[in-house]
Amino acid sequence: MLKDFFSRKKKYATITFEEDKKTESPVENKTIKKAVDTSHDKIKDSRIDSRKRIKDIVDNDTFIEYDIDLETSNPLDFPGYKEKIEKAVKASNENEAIITGEGCINGEKAIICVMNPSFMMGSMGSVVGEKITRAIEKALEKRLPIIIFCASGGARMQEGILSLMQMAKTSAALGRLADEGILYISVLTDPTTGGVTASFAMLGDIIIAEPGALIGFAGPRVIEQTIKQKLPEGFQRAEHLLEKGFIDMIVKTEDMKMHLSQVLKLHSLGGDINE
Fold first, then answer.
1. What domains can be seen in the chain, in order of their start residue?
2. How far apart are CA 211 and CA 189, in angstroms?
3. What is the pLDDT of residues 165-189, one digit of tens each?
4. How far is CA 166 from CA 24, 126, 169, 242, in A?
5. Cα(103)–Cα(107) distance, rounded to whole angstroms?
6. At 147, is the secondary structure helix, strand, or coil?
7. Which of 138, 113, 108 shows the shortest CA–CA distance to 124?
8. Which of 115, 28, 123 is nearest to 85 (CA)?
9. pTM beyond cutoff 0.85
10. Measured between alpha carbons, how far is residue 246 from residues 11, 203, 238 in Å?
11. Could you count the other beta carbons within 10 Å of the beta carbon of residue 236?
């Protein structure tokens, strides 16, 4: 049964789709590595805000947003935090760094969470962690697969230990999801770093990355300054992580909807791709 298949974490390799067999491979291991420009400015310019991401991925008029009214406070009375939040809200036209909800992807229903790099670099505070946890609980309640698009600089320092607690909270919720054999797809976009990488981002049953995405815990500059050495080119990019087995596949942004819907379809068919 598919439930048993997905409850055994990370025991399977990259899924190959029929369309991919006609070309090279679903992730184009070698060609992407050579073709993608992983320069900082190029990747930064390709970042997508959460609303556009939802528009590109979710079928028209199917998205129902969760927890719209959840807003950040200043629990530790951190100096200047309220002003930073107000500035981020004004700049992004969103009230936090994530949008959660449910919708259909080529007709396949799923719970969807999309982090927003334009809101304080997608940093994870209490509200982000709470919204993700509630979305996971909805996936449990409705027995629907969940997809999380990660884009974050990590934990939000202005919330201190309360921010770090979200790592444990989201991971524990995903543990309950895994126990029930419900599919979780993690999509790593640029950048996925810090506490987000150290928690829910790397816990997917299937982990997909976009070409050239920066993925790691500490950033490359922090590592270089710590070890006093220059890192190899592309060291923390998606292509290198695929080569080392940290992720399952690389999918171009324009192909993401098709790939996700195929995985969801396979899941809904109980693992029988011939049905």
1. 2-268 (3.90.226.10)
2. 8
3. 999 999 999 999 999 999 999 999 9
4. 40, 6, 5, 27
5. 9
6. strand
7. 113
8. 123
9. no
10. 13, 11, 9
11. 22
